[in-house]
Automatic annotation (TrEMBL):
Residues of the Carrier domain: 454-529
Gene3D superfamilies for the chain: 3.40.47.10, ACP-like (1.10.1200.10)
Ranges for domain Ketosynthase family 3 (KS3): 2-415
Listed SMART domains: PKS_KS, PKS_PP
GO biological process: fatty acid biosynthetic process
Protein name, UniProt field: Phthiocerol synthesis polyketide synthase type I PpsE
The keyword Oxidoreductase appears for this protein: no
Alphabetic keyword roster: Phosphopantetheine, Phosphoprotein, Transferase
Source organism (scientific name): Holospora curviuscula
Length: 529
């Protein structure tokens, strides 16, 4: 790639970070976005791990802004909704003219498995009776993610959905870079999203799986024992560097090279990583960038915290950089936010962009002692326990994303001289433009639309609706005992979580047992006001 590509816009919604500014604050902190889930009460079940990286407002969407009806918004995969909004906000913050549309803009995007469709819509009789299966598929299938963004944002370049497992979103960036380099387009938006269901739920650990038994990711550490799931979405806006300079865009970082390859059969099995393929990829990308090993300061690794994956990745890095004079700083974002599946690559890229922009390398959370299998490569590898300020005119970094099935992606970026961190704040101020309306199927039998903090609904109405949804009934007798009409302690906790969110109150489980009818329960809540 002879053409350098500027990153002129970005936006994200990651666990504990609903925008790039909050993401940067999280990365600098010792806090993890991986949190205890609402089903923590199941922790005494064998091998149940109540942890997940949970994103902010996964069901919020400003349908009216995009001319989408509430009914259509309800059946659209939340992954599509979220990425549409992020794409608009990121483009809008760059000054893009959606009406004039003089610049040909391409869309390169990826998303996770459409669980909303399979786990909720198909099990909802009201939905399946009302809509043809084809209509639901168009609203949820991965194939229509990029084209839907292009339609709603009036973008006329190529619109391509990119899928390669965990490396999908960084592969989307690579393809966007190629399209810009070939002058097919003037602007590109690239990124990905992944949401798994239930939203606020942990997982069952199985010996030998890639998941962590303790709900923490210990990337490159002696305690490395698996990864943790997370939800999130991120997007970047790209232009050729010469065009970004001519348009007077804010330049967050510059992509100097990007490469991709596949393992083929150079590994022990289909899902296993390949040392040889990773090494070849790093070598080729470094050569294309025009930099040498001594120019590279930092690599944001795939770093899942698995016993097999981390040592293979570090070995490949070492064999490429072993003659480097100074230490190479290695990190992984997954201990901070979890493994975001199709969105993991874009999370790593945006982290690196923010580091290059602010010239401070974040530490790797949960790192205490290096993995013994990585010890042979420690001569040039440095993993930070605290953030490090790099006072250099130019900083160069690599980002790696590896997909199950063997599609690997590596990108090399450099800092842009003269960046002003205050520009990031002005960029972010342009992002908060949507109102928050929640579109979600709360149960498999009922579909509702909720306006956040609606002042029009009484406590009685809100509690009654919650009981009906949780119990799966159309009517609720105000004097029947919750536990006599199908309620269980599990359903009671679900109902409490729903009500605490909608009423913005702290209702205790004991209230359910002491006031088990609707009449008594409503009176108890009203008495708390």
């Amino acid at each position: 790639m002879n053409q350098e590509i500027a990153i002129v816009g970005l936006d994200c919604n990651f666990p504990a970070a609903k925008n790039p500014f909050e993401y940067w604050e999280l990365l600098k902190s010792k806090t993890s976005g991986i949190k205890l889930t609402e089903d923590f009460y199941l922790h005494n079940q064998t091998n149940f791990v109540p942890y997940k990286g949970i994103m902010n407002d996964p069901f919020c969407f400003d349908a009216e802004f995009f001319g989408i009806s509430p009914a259509d918004a309800m059946i659209m995969d939340p992954q599509h909704r979220i990425l549409i909004q992020l794409a608009y906000r990121a483009l809008n913050a760059t000054g893009h003219n959606f009406e004039k549309n003089s610049k040909k803009t391409g869309v390169f995007s990826s998303c996770g498995f459409p669980e909303y469709f399979h786990k909720y819509l198909l099990k909802n009789k009201e939905i399946t009776h009302k809509y043809e299966n084809h209509y639901l598929q168009v609203a949820n299938d991965k194939d229509f993610l990029a084209t839907r963004i292009a339609y709603h944002l009036n973008l006329t370049g190529p619109a391509v959905t990119v899928q390669s497992g965990c490396s999908s979103s960084l592969l989307a960036v690579h393809l966007a870079v190629q399209s810009l380099s070939l002058y097919e387009i003037d602007v590109a938006i690239a990124g990905g999203v992944s949401i798994s269901y239930p939203i606020n739920s942990g997982y069952h650990y199985t010996e030998g799986s890639i998941l962590s038994p303790d709900g923490k990711v210990h990337a490159f550490d002696k305690k490395a024992n698996g990864t943790v799931r997370g939800d999130g979405a991120g997007i970047v806006v790209l232009k050729r560097l010469e065009d970004a300079l001519n348009d007077n865009n804010t330049i967050f970082a510059i992509i100097s090279a990007s490469k991709t390859n596949n393992d083929g059969k150079n590994k022990v099995g289909f899902t296993a990583p390949s040392y040889l393929s990773q090494k070849q990829l790093l070598d080729e990308c470094l050569e294309e960038s025009g930099f040498n090993v001594d120019d590279i300061d930092f690599i944001e690794g795939h770093g899942t915290g698995t016993k097999l994956g981390d040592p293979i990745e570090v070995r490949a890095i070492y064999d490429v950089y072993k003659n480097k004079k100074d230490m190479l700083i290695l990190s992984s974002v997954k201990p901070h936010i979890g493994h975001l599946d199709a969105a993991s690559g874009i999370a790593s890229l945006i982290k690196t962009v923010l580091f290059l922009y602010n010239k401070t390398i974040p530490h790797t959370l949960n790192f205490e002692e290096i993995n013994p299998l990585i010890l042979p490569y420690q001569k040039i590898i440095n993993i930070l326990n605290d953030p490090l300020l790099l006072e250099k005119d130019q900083i160069v970094s690599g980002v790696t994303s590896l997909g199950i099935g063997g599609t690997n992606v590596h990108v090399i970026l450099r800092s842009y001289p003269g960046n002003n961190p205050s520009c990031l704040l002005s960029h972010l101020r342009a992002l908060d433009i949507f109102k928050k309306t929640v579109y979600v199927t709360d149960t498999v039998e009922n579909v509702k639309l909720y306006e956040e903090n609606s002042p029009n609904n009484s406590v009685k109405e809100i509690v009654t609706e919650a009981w009906k949804e949780i119990l799966g009934c159309k009517d609720a007798d105000i004097d029947l005992n919750f536990f006599d009409i199908g309620g269980t302690s599990f359903l009671a906790i679900q109902c409490l979580n729903l009500l605490n969110k909608r009423l913005n109150k702290k209702i205790n489980l004991t209230d359910f047992y002491e006031y088990p009818t609707l009449r008594l329960f409503i009176q108890k809540i009203e008495a708390k006001e």
